[in-house]
Amino acid sequence: MATHMREKRVAKERQKIERSGLPPGIDLVDGDSLKEWTFDIRVLDTNPLYQNQTYRLRFAFPQSYPIEPPEVTFDIKPDRPVPIHPHIYSNGFICLDLLDTQGWSPVQSAESVCMSIQSMLTSNSKNERPPGDEEFVRGNRLRPRDIEFLYHDNTLHPPLETSGSCTGSGHWVDLVRHDGICSPDHRGRKRFTASQPS
To answer: Does this entry carry the keyword DNA damage (predicted)?
Structure first.
């Protein structure tokens, strides 16, 4: 039943794109599958951080889409780098509350997610990765959908170990990020293997 829901919704979104097109700076590269799509996005203003750059986004639609959000990452290609941004890890993971189950709404679509990410890049003025990027990328073995970021205030913090139960070799870790539209009350915790930041 859930798979049918995904296929129906993704097919409907693809029909809308074929009929109406996409906003400027967003191109559907591969939309043949009902499970995974790729888009190219460009920042259209004069932001020097992203001028003349094109980035590749990969969408993986879970069986329960659109009830659950898609898994969205930047794909690393020779001609498609991962943009430098305080909420985008160098492995292509994106910290955006819209992509979390708490921030997601079924009224969203692949197109609206692309527009949000495009807007996130357009408004950025910091040429930096999230704090703790290298450690996170080196130690992470989870898919983006298996990590629940903790959103609060306007402070960026590296992943930190927290007290609490630990199962197997993993530690409970809070990943603290803010993307400018997150709720200060959102809390989430998932297993993530990492050492204490120095």
So the answer is: no
The answer, yes or no, to whether the previous bond of 23 is cis (omega within 30 of 0) is no
Residue 111, helix vs strand vs coil: helix
Structural domains in the chain, CATH included, are 1-157 (3.10.110.10)
pTM flag (> 0.90):
no
Give CA 161 to chain center in angstroms. Answer: 22
Q: Which amino acid is at 171?
A: H
pLDDT digits (tens, 9 = 90+) for 117-129: 999 999 999 999 9
Residue 166: active-site member: no
CA-based R_g, the chain, Å:
17
Residue of 95, 114, 166, 182 marked active site: 95
Neighbours of 185 (CB within 10 A): 8
Q: Identify which of 109, 89, 112 has the alpha carbon closest to the alpha carbon of residue 179.
A: 89
Instruction: Sort 122 into a burial class: Cβ within 10 Å, 0-12 / 13-18 / 19+.
Output: middle
